Each structure stands twice: as structure tokens, then as C-alpha cells.
Amino acid sequence: MSDALRAAVADLLDRADERSEGVLPIVQAGAPVLRAPAARYDGQLGDLLPRLVEAMRRTMRAAPGVGLAAPQVGISLAIAVVEDAGTVDDDPRERTAVPFRVLVNPRYEPLPGPAGGGAGAERVAFFEGCLSVAGWSAVVARHRRVRLTGTDEAGEPVDEVLTGWPARIVQHETDHLAGELYLDHAETRSLTSNENLARYWAASPDPAPAAAGLGFALPVARGDS
């Protein structure tokens, strides 16, 4: 199986190099690979891994996006890349910069806020999109604070706490590796084309106006773990 996988990945990368300067096609919703739990990465790709990581980096940036999981390019392995330049300091999403990094076999667990209090993990709701659901966005409640574990591409351990938008990115990409799409967790009535998101709801990241206009209730922010 590893030889067949290596051959398939090598062919995918070769074709991308020939046709699109190393940018891979992004699989869209409805493809079975997006709904199957990805296999744990245990070195199956050998020396192909750096080529795949570079191709995923190029693909994510070209899209553009802030994260990309291997199943989104048709490879069912637990590998993802993330990167975000961040935004202004007063962004309510807490969208701080995320330098480019590779996540291998990542997992996350929700954490309560720094103050604790026993109320459970805090969740916050914002519009979210996905490169594999092109052209659409919806409001998703995510854990505000998570602990991320796994390794990087060199096998070095990753164990850190993330808050705000970086935590959201990690949850989104790790969910991909479990065969989940953001739509599985979204407020259904919030689903909007990106054209209408820009037309009606782009004035602020706050989803409250969309909740009022589209007729959905925002999730409870605390104690819903």
C-alpha cells in the first residue's frame, strides 16, 4: 500500500509541476476523500514529504487560504499546513498572525479560558469558509481556546495552546483529517454565498447582524463544551 501511495503522490506532484507551477487541484465537497478519516502519517511518503509540503504551501497561498489539509488535495494522510498574516489588533476574532507551519497527526482539545471557573470551554461564533466548499461561508461556533498536539514535518513534537482565530484554523484543518467539513458544525440558516457575505455582512466580523437578518440564533458563548 505504501508503494502505491508513494507512486500516486509522486504522479500528482509531477503533474502539478508540469501544468500549474506546483499548485495542486483542490478537491471539492462531494468527493469521498473528504469524508474518510485520514490515515495516520507514519513515514509512508519518505523523501516525498518535503515536495508535498511545498506543493501544499503553494496551493494554500494561491487559493488563497489560511490552511490546507492533505485530503483537500486528494491525499488521505493526516497532514496539514497553516499560515495567516493576521489582521488589525482590534479584530474581535482575535486574528493574530500564524507563521507557516506543518502539522502532522494533529489533535486538539478544548480548554477553558485562563480564568477557569468551571463553566466549560468557551465557544465563539464567526463566519467561516473552506477551499473545498468554494464560494460559500457560514457561521460556525468553535472553541476559543484549544491545546494542539502532534508533530511537525521533521517529527518534532508540537504541544501548545492557541486562542482565537489561530485556534479556529487548527480546529478546521484537524476536522478535515477526521472526515469533517465546517458545514457539519455550521448554523444552517447562516449559509451565504461569498458574494452576499461581501454585500450584506462584511461591515464587521460580528455575526449578530447576519443572525438577525437570516433568522438564526447565535450559540451560547460559554459553558457549551
Automatic annotation (TrEMBL):
Cofactor field: Fe(2+)
Catalytic residue list: E173
Entry binding sites for Fe cation: C130, H172, H176
Record's catalysed reaction(s): N-terminal N-formyl-L-methionyl-[peptide] + H2O = N-terminal L-methionyl-[peptide] + formate
Coiled-coil spans in chain: none
InterPro entries in the record: Peptide_deformylase, Peptide_deformylase_sf
This protein's encoding gene: def1
Co-factor note (free text): Binds 1 Fe(2+) ion.
Similarity remark: Belongs to the polypeptide deformylase family.
Purpose of the protein: Removes the formyl group from the N-terminal Met of newly synthesized proteins. Requires at least a dipeptide for an efficient rate of reaction. N-terminal L-methionine is a prerequisite for activity but the enzyme has broad specificity at other positions.
Keywords per UniProt: Hydrolase, Iron, Metal-binding, Protein biosynthesis
UniProt EC number: 3.5.1.88
Name of protein: Peptide deformylase
NCBIfam families: PRK00150.1-3
